[in-house]
Description:
37% helix
Amino acid sequence: MKVLGIDSSGLVATVAVAEDDNLLAEYTVNYKKTHSQTLLPMLDEIVRMTELDLSTLDAVAVAAGPGSFTGLRIGAATAKGLGLALGKPLVEVPTLEGLAYNLYGTSHLVCPMMDARRSQVYTGIYEFEQEELKALESQTAVSVQELTEKVNGLGREIIFLGDGVPVYRDILCENLKVPYHFAPAHMNKQRAGAVAALGLRYLAAGRTVHAREHRPDYLRMSQAERERAEKAGAC
Length: 235
């Protein structure tokens, strides 16, 4: 099986193609450009370099959220457009599961965290059990203080990764009471290779949706929606 992976949920824009146990190509950019500027050119370059016939894909795997509202919409639009044009299903990979999959096989707990602003992070707590990714805490939006309390309560060694780490690293260091590590540069941000690899597993398990059905999982309201709700509550 062959899957195209797309992730534009955070600061990184990344595209990859995986076939069975082989990562055929991966293009990742973490620079000051909008994903609308980078995502399609990256895909075009992968298609050109690998002489990829998009019609040979079995599915398109997309980081489905949470994350940047704008980034998720760009990724969703790209994946849906490809799925509809090619007649291929989409595989919705929760963003934090894709991040955690970067550390496949570790015996430690894995805690991906993305900066959600307003002193919160999008996060979850995972472990690998017999080669399967298991969620001890499913992805959610919480304060960093609440996250550290949950981690301390589990009492196990843990690895943190994601763009929330540099933002809240000092708080983690001050409050954690368990052994902890921070993932190194080559695996601490979103990678479409992980999304594609996990997408292959989910595809084999039949976890697909029609391109028309895909909706990003934002986990919480946008700032505009919150402001409208606050105004309505004040009336």
